[in-house]
Amino acid sequence: MLANFHTHTKRCNHAAGEDREYVIAAIKAGLTALGFSDHSPQCFDGGFYSNFRMKPEEQRDYIESISALREEFRDYIHLYIGYETEYYPDIFGKTYDMLSSMPYDYMILGQHALDNEKDAHFCFTETDDAALLEKYVSQVCEGIRTGKYFYLAHPDVFRFSGDEDIYEEQMTHLCREANRYGMPLEINGLGLRDNRYYPSESFFRIAAREGSKAIFGCDAHSPDTVGLADNYDEARRLADRCGIELIETAVPVKFREKIKQK
Fold first, then answer.
1. Is there a contact between 144 and 107 (Cβ–Cβ < 8 Å)?
2. pLDDT, position 253
3. Omega of the bond prior to 252 within 30 degrees of 0, cis?
4. What is the domain extent for residue 226?
5. pLDDT, average across residues 157-182
6. What is the sign, positive or negative, of the torsion defined by CA atoms of 154, 159, 165, 169?
7. Pick from 62, 69, 70, 79: nearest CA to 11
8. Residue 133 in domain
9. Which of 49-58, 89-98, 104-113 has the lowest mean pLDDT?
């Protein structure tokens, strides 16, 4: 395992540990690169605050902390500053401008809720409603087409218990759109560690059939979950069973720099 680009911090209100502890854990695990990608602030309207992400006023501390650690540990590991963020169409432009007001290296797309989050369906909530599944796929694909994301985190996070043929049709569309833009699909380490309903073998078999590429992300919410060899090995076995290529990279490519002009 060369690198991990899915790492949270305590600023998101559901992770533990200091930023430095994550870096030290990554070095001890033998990683050559670590990307921090905490849940990004969003420019919600009406003073709404989401309770599972950093607040806009915490952005500067986040950037400055990781930047200082990058300098301190530059002889030991490459550190990158990123965000895990949803694509919320009504506020994406404002959010992107806010994030871009300070230097960062990459974003990953992790769609936890539909629409613009407030009063919306959350993807962890089980449903057999095909219209909601279609909305999830449509919204993710719209996010992909912005060209702003490095990879798609937990693409199989939408918990659908409805018609399998509809699921296959929709996820085929998602995989094809990701492929069109050269976007890897994450095998999520947190899902594996917690024995969640994702990563989904049925999803990654569809992805393999469509020629997609997978990437492993620890989705670390504590330092002791960074770079676990057993976690990575389990992801590789899943990839092998599904027949999908699991890629490794030590550099997070800014997705907008590799968009295919189509």
1. no
2. 60
3. no
4. 3-257
5. 98
6. negative
7. 62
8. yes
9. 49-58
